[in-house]
Specification:
Mean pLDDT: 81
Order of helices and strands: HHHEHEHHHHHHHHHHHEHEEEEEH
Shape: flat
Helix content: 55-70%
Strand order of the largest sheet: 3-8-5-4
Number of domains: 3
Number of strands: 8
Distance between the termini: 42 Å
Low-confidence stretches: none
Radius of gyration: 38 Å
Strand content: 5-15%
Number of helices: 17
Amino acid sequence: MDSYLSPAGLRAVSELSYLTATNVARYRAIMKFVYLEYQRLKYWLRPEEIYEGVTAWSVLEGYTMEQCVSDLESLKNWGNLASRHDGGRALSLEEYMRKKSQYLLTPYSIEIERMLEALEKVKGYGGSLETTYFDTISECVHQIREKGDLFEEGEALQNWEKLYVAFKTMHENAADFIASIHSIQADEMMATDGFLMLKDNLVNYLQHFVKSLQRSAYRIEGQLQRVRDGMRDLYIERVLEDELRKPRLEEGKSAEELRAEFHQGWMNLKRWFIGDELEQSELTLLEKATKETIAKVVRSAVRLQERRRGGVSRRNDLENLGRRFAELENLDEAHKLAAYAFGLFPSRHLQGEDRRETERADASTWEEPPNVRLIRTRSRKRASKSASEPMRTHTAKREAYRKQVEAQLEEERAFVTWMREAGERSIIELPVLKAKDRMRLLQWIGRCTATASRSFVTSDGYKVAIAWPEHDEDAVLRSEDGELIMANYRISVTGGEARNG
């Protein structure tokens, strides 16, 4: 399992009760005031201070000090506030008789008020497609590959925080931005004429992100694949050591919980860029979603332009054209004007072979004798029955195509068999290949690199797998139609005995 759910994670959250209570306005006013004072670094507050602060807003009519004290006790019982006895001197008999306390926000309440403060600022999905996060992630992963477990004290934790914050922010911003494009508000905006002014900037913005995604994100994928499990574990241990060195006044997570949290974070990062055997990577899905968004924007702009063109009135143009026709003196001039204004009328294309009487290049078409073609009538009257035509047969074409496909399959089987008998080989060990074999080999490599297992199974039951070069070395793939410099993959073909037997 990716995470562990404890029974404490399923408890009822009493700290949220004040958001749905009967006197919710009074409770929220108190919590808002205490939270604002907390941000001003004033933590312990007396009931008199809270009452004065709430009544100064003039949002609660008829609010009394007794109601304020009762509300503070309710918030204390729900776990929103903690209290302590106020040992100060009493200035009146009423203060002396009343049990004096000071109140402090609890950690749960601080997070709840922060959440509410953030919710008040939400005006939509927001988000953005920033490409700088990819550079930050690439830099951090490259640093992990270079230093391994040789980080200085505190440097590994700093690298991890920088890496994971950039990854989390990039993922959330991209998801929010794509969701905003598919929201109801975006659909309504794309149906307005003002959208045409934004279309070019939006398409350029999305295209720039896709280019950066293809250039930077796939480089990160290659770097993550080169971080082996041993190097990853050493790096996580350095991060854990830096985290445990921090002085803590309260009881925090244990070393095992922190180690599991860091390991899960790394797996999330790797799964986002590389994927796993069960599903595609989030990187691939984000690229696909961005391209679909570009297509949606372009389609919306085309529909708007067609609608605008369809609603344009041609009355003035047609009246002007009619006056020009009325001013002409003969029919030939009217024919010429009609040709300029309307062009050629729709024509019918008749298929057949012309019988030419001469091969002269300067012979005019109008001098050739006509070729008579019988055409079917468009009358709705039932036509007389004509002689039935024989059914056309395409047996010869199908047979020729079948032989062509069988020849291609035979060539592919021969190449697969040759690769299987040759055993595991690297690119540099291969002899000069035929052009078709070179294309098949590159197709294999493309299919393998597109899967998390770096392998696939052919229709004949052969398993084709590739392995990355250990030292990032390059090799030359030689073929009859040229040479190609590429990574020195190791290719193996196994299986297929049951099918061939």
